[in-house]
Amino acid sequence: MTAVLRALWWREITKFLRDRSRLAGALVQPLAFWVLLGLGFYGTFEMPGGEGVGYLEYLYPGIIALILLFTAIFSTISIVTERQEGFLQAALVAPVPRTVVVFGLVSGGATLAVVEAVLFLFLAPLVGLGPGLLGLGVVLTATVAMALAFTALGFILAWRLETTRGFHAVMNLFLLPMWFLSGAFFPATGVPAALQWVMYLNPAFYGVAAIRQGLYLPGVAPGVELPLALTLGVSVAFAAGVLALAVWTVRRPLFAS
């Protein structure tokens, strides 16, 4: 089983390395978002209770979350086409538990997401951020949790959808609003109460908050009022829950409908 899991994981890595357009899109698009939005709101953004924090600096943790989201979308969309080509059917009839198929495909996409996020961390000094070892550990833990959660979510959706057009529509319906309301664009403080509660119910909100807290350790992250143990705990629990849901999904008949 270990060999099968490793083979599925390495297959995802190989597909990514051989697709140069996907490689460029995964890194350049979030960077363009960061520069254009950061400079566009540079003169108008005022951080509640965090004077001196520019929008480029505030948006930085949110762009890490965006990298994880984009990588999850691009890595799991191939499941739709591979299902049409028969690869999934071949994997499912192989004498290995379906749980191995889930962890092999999800771990491959999540690994790519984490590597891209780590590469983006080298830009942190540009906005004056320089976390210590403890902070980097927190950022890495939150990043791994979000990568697994987003990739497993994409996996669940791709498993049941029959066309890439439907996949894009559903992803835009679920994952992009999760990112918009994760605290990546604006803090929860100062927004209307109803919207604030929606943000608190969004699991991605805790992942972005944990990354932000890690980037500022040993200092205090601006705009984050929740304790680090809570934001990190919710992120890890959400990833575990979505992975369990993905395993439950593949154990059901693929062609039940």
Describe the structure.
It is a single chain. The protein is mostly helical and 257 residues long. Helices cover 76% and strands 0% of the residues. The protein is elongated and about 60 Å long. It starts with a helix and ends in a 7-residue tail after the last helix. The model has no long low-confidence stretch (mean pLDDT 83).
Q: What are the SSEs and their pairings?
A:
Elements: H1 2-18, H2 20-40, H3 55-85, H4 87-93, H5 98-121, H6 133-160, H7 164-184, H8 193-201, H9 203-216, H10 228-250
- The SS-based structural class is mainly alpha
Question: How does the major sheet shape up?
Answer: none
Say how many strands there are: 0
Mean pLDDT: 83
State the order of secondary-structure elements, H for helix, E for strand. Answer: HHHHHHHHHH
**DSSP helix fraction:** over 70%
- Report the radius of gyration as a whole number of Å: 19 Å
